[in-house]
């Protein structure tokens, strides 16, 4: 698989001396869906700030599609890397949804009919048609998230970087966003990197997971491989998906026997279906 993002031996120290990232190595292939999972303060947002050059690594090298994140490459890199911030209020600053989405496009020279078409397309993808004239500030948390996503998507980035994308969403909003991100990944072949401490969503969206704690990558592998390391996950103040925890308890009680804990309801259903005394 062709590499899109290469993070090599990267450390980041804030001005006050806080070592937020230490010797981080990450490699992401084109079209992959990657979860960066870690507790509060692990360094996830710092890592994302480095990806589009908002922050400069204290040491190490970051490359996006073979281009290093140094000043002369930043205009190209900022088009290729679309970041959806943790807090939508940090992202939305225009007085209408239309202007919000037009802003980045105008900056890269998209005008007229092409501009209108792209705005319409981005709003359709996120399911927010008809909101063009609304002020982003008068939208709900979940709606703001969708507009922020539309404004980034409109730039047709190679990779979408989403910092805690589900944090402000209600349960239906979460499942709609997961479907939407999966659709965007498949339909437009846009690579996804998202950070989260919501362990239940990770198996639904990620191909691979990097576990980060206190600025260091603790573990990486396929979603199944990473969730196999129960002790490490629990030591990091995270947990297993609830459905995995339930089956773990049932197994301890001698109620079921599994080779691998299920990570999603779909997987759990298959296991429980084999039990003739349980109707699922
Ligand atoms: N501007 C800053 N100056 C100094 N230290 C900072 C700054 N921003 C973040 N930090 C520190 O760096 C560490 C990593 O912070 P970061 O925001 O990257 O964590 P995070 O994994 O995104 O956490 P959360 O899940 O709470 O969003 C934390 O200890 C934080 O206190
Ligand atoms: Mg954060």
Describe this structure in words.
The protein has 11 helices and 10 strands. With 280 residues, the chain is of the alpha/beta class. The protein has 2 domains: 3-239, 3-Layer(aba) Sandwich (Rossmann fold); 240-280, no CATH class. The strands form 2 sheets. The chain has a 6-stranded mixed sheet with strand order 6-7-8-3-9-10, sandwiched between helices. A hairpin with a 2-residue loop joins strand 4 (59-64) and strand 5. Helix 3 (97-107) crosses helix 4 and helix 3 runs parallel beside helix 5. The longest helix is centred in the middle third of the chain and has 18 residues, at 171-188. It is globular, with a radius of gyration of 20 Å. The model has no long low-confidence stretch (mean pLDDT 93). Bound molecules: adenosine-5'-triphosphate and magnesium ion. Adenosine-5'-triphosphate (ATP) binds next to helix 1. Belongs to the ABC transporter superfamily.
